[in-house]
Specification:
Blueprint: E1 4-7, H1 14-25, E2 28-31, H2 32-41, H3 45-56, H4 62-75, E3 82-85, H5 91-103, E4 110-115, H6 118-131, H7 139-153, H8 155-162, E5 166-170, H9 175-187
Helix pairs in contact: 1-9, 2-3, 4-5, 6-7
The structure holds adenosine-5'-diphosphate (ADP).
Length: about 190
């Protein structure tokens, strides 16, 4: 199996690049943000628990994400691999993912980290707010999401560096240029 994690702050282009990577390497794209938004929209038990937390830009509790992870793996047994977008976001989630991978006798091949400066992601998210209507794309929530990223998610960079899996990519430039630099590293 070829399993990847796409890592980066909100607005770094994880979603856009994940779709392209999934297509090229024929991987199942797993965006926990998209999954959660669908749960909110369908007013499921999970969605009801997640809604207010997401609107504030905070993290949905780990146990709910682990529940999502288990059902994704359960329902996609025949795929060539996964690209995880927006997951894991905490050390607890990363540990759960490692544990599950070990149990299935597979592993994470690489973690791609998209590097984009704060000012740039803020500008992108504010622009997206004008086009789409995501409830979490407003000034206050954006700042909160960035600090949540710094405090709770960025420690994972160290976690995966220690496992020698981290690939750093400059996430500024055209979509295709960024995609090409990702592929170049993955194909090595
Ligand atoms: P972005 O990376 O642009 O902030 P996402 O679509 O990945 O957006 O996530 C939107 C929101 O969904 C997050 O702010 C958080 O509340 C929730 N969420 C998504 N993935 C996770 C996760 N792995 N752990 C906890 N919460 C998550």
């Amino acid at each position: 199996m070829f399993n990847l994690i796409l890592f980066g702050p909100p607005g770094s282009g994880k979603g856009t690049q994940s779709v392209k990577i999934a297509e090229k390497y024929q991987l199942k794209h797993v965006s926990t943000g998209d999954i959660l938004r669908a749960e909110v929209k369908n007013e499921t038990e999970l969605g009801i628990k997640a809604r207010d937390i997401m609107e504030r830009g905070e993290l949905v509790p780990d146990e709910l994400l682990i529940q999502i992870l288990h059902s994704v793996m359960e329902n996609n047994k025949d795929v060539k691999g996964f690209i995880f977008d927006g997951f894991p976001r905490t050390i607890v989630q990363a540990g759960a993912l490692d544990k599950l991978m070990t149990k299935l006798n597979v592993g994470i091949s690489n973690v791609i980290s998209l590097d984009v400066a704060d000012e740039e992601v803020i500008a992108r998210l504010l622009k997206r707010a004008e086009i789409e209507s995501r409830k979490d794309d407003n000034k206050e929530t954006i700042n909160n999401r960035l600090s949540v990223y710094k405090n709770q998610t960025s420690p994972l960079l160290d976690y995966y560096t220690k496992q020698d899996k981290l690939i750093k990519i400059v996430g500024v430039g055209s979509i295709d240029d960024i995609f090409n630099s990702i592929c170049e590293k993955l194909d090595k």
